[in-house]
Design goal:
six-stranded mixed sheet
């Protein structure tokens, strides 16, 4: 980076009161006062008799307490180059090198070091070498660092503790932790700076467990540590999931009155959140005297990662009432929470904020936007966000491929995968999950078989249990139940409950009793308390008229104490997420909602709707079964949307379970009768209902 242009003339010397020799210039002096002070030193003769006075002036100019600006650097360079000044010395060079480093110009510090080496009458000292090694760290240039190390060895400076610590830090920061560790091991008496240099090196390289292990070793030998050490170790504990050590640090910090250190408190909030201790994290967060954007982001991220997304959005709303502005890290967590809840309006506001504030569209933030829009069923907006990104990685492509797959655009997902390969972006194992899902949800059996084989043959990616699950789902959805069963029996890895559950779901759709019974038999030892599995087999029995067997399954659930997971649907209106449960009885507008449901059912019956009561309770008569299915959570949410949204507005909701056959048929007709597009995200895919049709083509 270029330094300031030097003037052709010498500095002016305005009149000023005389100063006594050895006068110490305060570091907080204003830049506009420096020329006067310089003139006073000249007039007093202090520059000729006391080099320390000039050192003090240069230091006050180049390294003021409030930070080095380009103007400070420019004037300091004029003082250094043009004088009048005492003879050059290592101390003068060191002041300017530190100023360049502080101002973010490590290359200029290095140029000054080279100039210093060319000066025959000035020899670098240990502080010079330590400063230049820090410049190498900033530039991530181990090659230059090795050259500086060779110079230090030649001059006998490498034994100095400042130099040795800077060498350890340089190698560790540049990713060569092996070289750093070798140097570290040669130090007989390690101070806290030495330990911190090594800990920081492993931290920067993401070796979280190594950071934790090193700190445990420090405790065993009684090595010194400080708040800087604890910040690194607490953060590493969160990344490594080492809750035991993290809690020890938390207790130590509180016991020793260190919780007032904002960086340390923030690291502890982050650690507790990542270790699943959300309540402890929130207690610390609420107790902080001041919170910066890092603290807010850590807490919001903790809620999002723990699937407490409503609390994440509530906290984000609270953050907006403060003077702390969110950054891109905050926005990634908020978008992830919006994606889970289907909170489209809140996510759109986030996108608008990013554009309005000119936040950099990093790969991580851009990918979060693509994922958010895709998970809200706005696949066209996801494509726009994808195209607007200056840089994309494999995760970005994968997010859009999976989004297209789950939104019923399987062939477009496969075309996107081809474009990804043409762009020379290597697919990951997660990419192939998206590709296989695209084949499954669009009934592209042959394409799915081909890609499953290709991932190992052409890309060297060995299938994981998730890929086998996608293949079972693909074959089962296509009605190839026997082939899916044989596929499971010949898998090279042990099938888990999810694999057998995919087969059981397919048996429900295609009414295959025998293999359905075998699937449940295999599931029970693996996951005995999952209510959905019993419900699926009960539905198979009901679909073929075996009512006694269906009732027997329900009784078995009662005997085992297994409760059916209640259906739950979420709908966002004006930035607020509303939650509905099947046969809900806890909503302030309950009467109006049920009246709207009754009106809705009457309207679609006139258009040909016939209730399907296969999923209803078995212990009631047919009329009560019809009422029961009409009170499923998605019907309540749709009725609420019809009540509250402007005419013609799209209704968007998400459900925790697979949409039942009756709700699917009813929603198709609701979209036609009320002239609405209705987007439903269930446990498996998106359903885009419009004009009496669904994007899944009744294949879900």
């Amino acid at each position: 980076m270029a330094t300031a242009v030097l003037p052709a003339a010498t500095l002016p010397a305005p009149a000023a009161p005389a100063l006594a020799p050895e006068t110490r210039i305060p570091r907080r002096v204003a830049l506009c006062d420096v020329p006067q002070l310089h003139a006073a030193l000249l007039k007093s003769g202090a520059l000729a008799t006391s080099p320390k006075s000039f050192h003090s002036l240069l230091e006050a100019t180049a390294l003021p307490d409030h930070g080095t600006t380009p103007a400070h650097l420019a004037y300091a360079l004029r003082l250094f180059r043009l004088g009048p000044r005492p003879p050059l010395s290592a101390q003068l060079y060191n002041i300017l090198m530190r100023a360049f480093l502080r101002a973010g110009h490590p290359e200029d510090a290095l140029h000054l070091f080279v100039e210093m080496l060319d000066a025959t009458d000035v020899n670098p000292d240990q502080h010079t070498v330590a400063c230049i090694l820090k410049s190498c760290s900033s530039m991530c240039s181990p090659v230059v660092g090795r050259g500086v190390q060779a110079y230090a060895v030649k001059r006998g400076l490498v034994v100095d503790r400042f130099v040795l610590n800077s060498l350890i830090h340089m190698y560790a920061s540049c990713g060569d932790v092996v070289a750093a560790q070798v140097l570290f091991d040669t130090v007989e008496e390690k101070g806290v700076v030495t330990w911190n240099a090594m800990v920081a090196g492993y931290f920067k390289n993401g070796s979280w467990r190594k950071v934790a292990e090193m700190f445990k070793g420090m405790l065993e030998v009684g090595a010194p540590f400080d708040e800087v050490t604890l910040v690194s170790v607490a953060t590493a504990c969160g990344r490594a999931g080492d809750a035991k050590l993290g809690k020890w640090i938390g207790e130590y910090v509180e016991k020793n009155g260190m919780v007032g250190n904002r960086n340390l408190a923030t690291a502890l909030v982050d650690m507790y959140a990542k270790c699943g201790e959300l309540d402890e994290a929130r207690r610390l967060f609420d107790g902080m005297r001041s919170r910066d954007v890092v603290a807010w982001s850590a807490m919001i991220s903790g809620y999002t990662q723990a699937d407490r997304c409503r609390e994440a959005l509530n906290l984000f709303s609270e953050m907006q009432s403060t003077e702390v502005s969110p950054n891109d890290v905050t926005m990634v967590s908020v978008l992830s929470a919006c994606a889970v809840l289907g909170a489209l309006e809140t996510g759109k506001w986030v996108h608008s904020y990013v554009r309005r504030k000119g936040l950099p569209l990093t790969v991580v933030l851009g990918t979060a936007l693509v994922d958010f829009y895709a998970k809200c069923g706005c696949i066209d907006s996801a494509v726009e966000a994808f195209k607007s990104m200056p840089l994309r990685n494999s995760w970005t492509w994968t997010a859009l491929i999976k989004g297209m797959a789950s939104n019923g655009r399987g062939r477009e997902a496969l075309e996107l995968f081809s474009s990804m390969r043409e762009a020379n972006v290597e697919p990951t194992d997660v990419t192939f999950i998206g590709v296989l899902l695209a084949c499954s949800h669009s009934c592209l059996v042959e394409e799915g078989r081909r890609h499953f084989i290709s991932m190992s043959q052409d890309y060297g990616i060995q299938p994981r249990i998730e890929h086998y699950g996608c293949m079972v789902d693909l074959l089962g959805r296509a009605g190839l139940i026997d082939e899916a069963y044989h596929f499971i029996k010949t898998m090279p890895i042990e099938p888990n409950a999810i694999i057998w559950r995919a087969l059981l779901s397919a048996c429900t759709v295609h009414k295959n009793v025998d293999i359905g019974e075998e699937a449940l038999k295999q599931i029970i030892p693996l996951d005995p308390s999952h209510s959905g599995d019993y419900i699926l087999l009960s539905n198979i029995y009901a679909s073929v008229g075996r009512w006694k067997d269906a009732a027997m399954i329900r009784r078995e659930m009662d005997m085992r104490g297994i409760e059916k997971i209640p259906g739950c649907s979420l709908i966002e209106l004006d930035g607020t997420v509303f939650e509905f449960f099947a046969e809900d009885s806890d909503h302030p507008q309950l009467r109006e909602i049920y009246e709207k449901v009754e009106e809705m059912i009457k309207s679609i019956k006139m258009a040909g709707y016939i209730p399907n009561t296969d999923d209803a309770r078995l212990d009631v008569d047919e009329n009560e079964k019809e009422v029961s299915v009409s009170h499923h959570s998605e019907k309540l949410a749709i009725a609420f949307g019809l009540m509250k949204l402007r005419p013609g507005a799209t209704i968007r909701l998400s459900k925790n379970l697979r949409v039942c056959v009756d709700c699917h048929s009813a929603t198709k007709l609701i979209s036609k009768v009320y002239n609405r597009e209705i987007v439903v995200r269930d446990r498996n895919i998106f359903h885009h209902f419009k004009d009496g049709y669904c994007s899944c083509n009744d294949y879900w």
